[in-house]
Amino acid sequence: MLAVAASALVVATAWPKGSGHVGAKAKSCSGAVTLPVIAAPSIAPAITTIATDWVATHPASGGVCVRVAVTAQDSRKAEQALAHAAAATVWIPDSSVWSSKLSTDSPAANRSRVVVGPSIAKSPLVVAAAPSLVAAVAAAGKTGWAGALSAGAGVALPSPTDTTEGALALLGMQAQLGTSAAGADTLGNILLQLTARVTPNTSAGFSAVKDYPASAPAFVASEQQVLAINDKALTPLTYPVFPSGVSPALDYPLVTITPNGSAVYAHALQQFEGQLTSPSATNALHVAHLRDVNATPFHDMSGVSGAGNAAVTLAPRPTVSGVTDILHRWATVDTANQFLAVVDVSGSMKDPAGNGQSKIQTASQATATAMTLMPDTWSVGLWTFSLKPPPANDWTELVPLGSVQTQRAALLTAAGSMPARASGDTGLYSTALAAFQTVTAQYAANKTNSVVLLTDGANVDPDDSNLPTLLAKLKAARDPRRPVSIITIALGKDADVHALQQISAATGGRTFVVRQAGDIRAIFVRIALRS
Fold it and tell me: For residues 262 and 32, what is the distance between their CA atoms, to the nearest angstrom?
C-alpha cells in the first residue's frame, strides 16, 4: 500500500454493458481493469479531467471495461514508495528529477519494469515577485539564474532537498556557471548565501507575500503556480520573472511500472497513454496553466506580465548524476560549520603575491570575503601567528570561537587588521597544536569542527622544532566522539608542504597547495563547502 501525502483519490469508471472487443471504445464490456495513476498535485486535476472524459466514452480492452484511479501525491514521497512497489502503476511526477531517481533507487528486479516515457506537459520555472520587486528581480535576472539567485536580488529558494523547484533552480544555476574554476567559485559563493534564504516550499512563499506584501521576498516557483494563485485573487499576488538563458522546467514525464502485466492491462495502458496526448488532453492541461511538451506559449491564457505568453528555451532533462551532485553540494553547505581560521602573519607574508598586493593583503581580503559569506548559524574564530620569544605564545587570538551572527563585524575588523601585524618568523607547530586543542575543547555538536591554517613558510621556532612530537600529540589528542580536522593551506613555493600534509593527515584533514595568492578566496569557499 502506498502512503498518500496531500492526496486526493478520484476514480473514473466505465461500467460494463455486455460483451465487447479490444478497442478504444466498446458498445459493451464486462468486468473491469483499473489503471492506477499517481500524479503530482499540480497536474492531478488535469489528469482527472482527462481520465473522466475518456472513461465516459466507454473504453475497453479485450472486452473488459477500463477505469482509471487518479491519486495526487507529492513526487518526492511517491518516488520513495514506488522504488519498492510491486503493483502496476502509472506515475506522472512533476519532474524527471524524480523519475531519474526512481530508476536509480529501485532494486534491479523492479528497475527492469520501470519505463520512463516522454513528458506530457511543461511549466517553466520563474521568480515569483510581488509588484514592488518585479523591476529589481528582472534586473538581476538579466544575467540568468545565477544573477537571480545572487545576494543582491534577495530571492528565496524552496528547500532543494524537499521540493522540485528548489532542486531545478540549483541545476539551472550550475548549468549556467559551467565547470570552470571560476564557475565553481561563483556557485559556491551563491550556495553559501542561499542558506539564509530558504523557504520550506512555494506555498510558504505565496503565503508570505499574501500576509506581508511589503516585506516578503520574491521566490522561485513554477509559472503554473503563479497563474493558478492569481486566478483566485482579485489582483495578481505575484508576477513571474523569467531569468535570461535556458529555463529549467517541471516536465511531467510519463512513467510506467508494469510488473507481470497482462495483455488486457497493457492494451488499456497503451490507450490511456494515447489519450494523454490528444487535443482534448492538451486543452485540459492548458486550463490547468500547463504548457504543452514544447513549452509553446499559451497566447490566450493570461495578460499577467507575459505569464504563459513568454517564449522560453528549455533546459535539458536533468540527469541522475547532475541531481545527485547538486543536492550533495547543497546538503554540505547547509550543514553548519565551526572552524578556527589561523593565518600566518610572519614577515614573509609581506612579500608580493603577484597580483599587485602582498600575500597578507590578499589573505586578509580573502578572509574578509569568507566571513561575509558565512551563514549566521556557523561558529568561527580568527587567530594570527608569528614567532615570539618565550613565554609569549606564537599565536594571537583576534576573535574567539563564537556565533557568526553576533560577531561578524568583529571578524571583518580583525581580518582587515592582519596586514599591519605582519612581522617575524613562522611559529607553526605550537600554533597548530594549540588551535587543535582549542576547537576540541569547544567542540560543537551537530557541526563540522575544524582548524583552517594558512602559512607561506616552515616552522623555525627553536623551542618547538620536532614534527614527530607534534604529530604524536595530535594523534593522542584526537577524540573519535568529537572529531576535529586541521585543514592546511600551503601558500607559495616556500611553504613546507610535506609537514603540512602530515599535520592534516594526523587529524583526518587535507592540504591545499596554492601557488597564486589570488586563489586563496576560492580555496576558502571550497573548504566551506567541503568540496
Answer: 13
Q: Domain limits at 146?
A: 123-249+318-329
Please indicate, yes or no, whether residues 426 and 396 belong to a single structural domain of this protein.
yes
Q: Looking at the predicted structure, is the pLDDT value of residue 376 above 90?
A: no
Mean pLDDT of 125-135: 94
Are 31 and 160 found together in one domain?
no
- The DSSP bridge partners found for residue 114 are 257
Domains of the chain: total: 3
Cα–Cα–Cα angle for 465, 510, 468, rounded to 5 degrees: 25
Which residue reads 556557471 in cell numbers?
177
pLDDT band of residue 24 (cuts 50, 70, 90) is very low
Half-sphere exposure in the Cβ direction for 135 (13 Å, CA): 1
Element (H, E) at 167: helix 164-177
* CA 207 to each of CA 160, 199, 216, 289: distance values in angstroms, whole numbers, following the listed order: 19, 11, 9, 20
Same domain, 116 and 19: yes
Rounded CA separation 32/265 (Å): 10
CATH assignment of the domain containing 20: 3.40.190.10
Query: Which helix (H) or strand (E) covers residue 382, if one does?
Result: strand 379-385
Residue whose grid cell is 517564449: 311
Rounded to two decimals, the pTM is 0.74
Amino acid letter, 277 = T
Do 381 and 414 belong together in one domain? yes
Considering the domain architecture, whether residues 236 and 262 belong to the same structural domain is answered as: no
Residues of the chain by 3-state class (helix, strand, coil), percent to 5: 40, 20, 35
Residues 489, 494, 499: CA angle, nearest 5 degrees: 55
Q: Assess contact for 89 and 257: CB atoms under 8 A.
A: yes
- Looking at the fold, whether 34 and 176 belong to one and the same domain comes out as no
Paired strand residues for 170 = none
Closest residue by Cα to residue 164 from 76, 227, 82: 76
Instruction: Calculate mean pLDDT across residues 34-55.
Output: 96
The pLDDT, as a whole number, for residue 6 is: 35
DSSP 3-state of 412: helix
pLDDT tens for each residue of 185-229 = 788 888 888 888 999 999 999 999 999 998 999 999 999 999 999
Strands 123-129 and 249-250: antiparallel
Q: Does 146 reside within a domain?
A: yes
The answer to the question of residue 295 being in a domain is: no
- 108 pLDDT band (50/70/90 cuts)? low
- Same domain, yes or no: 195 and 214: yes
pLDDT of residue 109: 60
Domain-embedded: residue 426: yes
**283 shares its domain with 148:** no
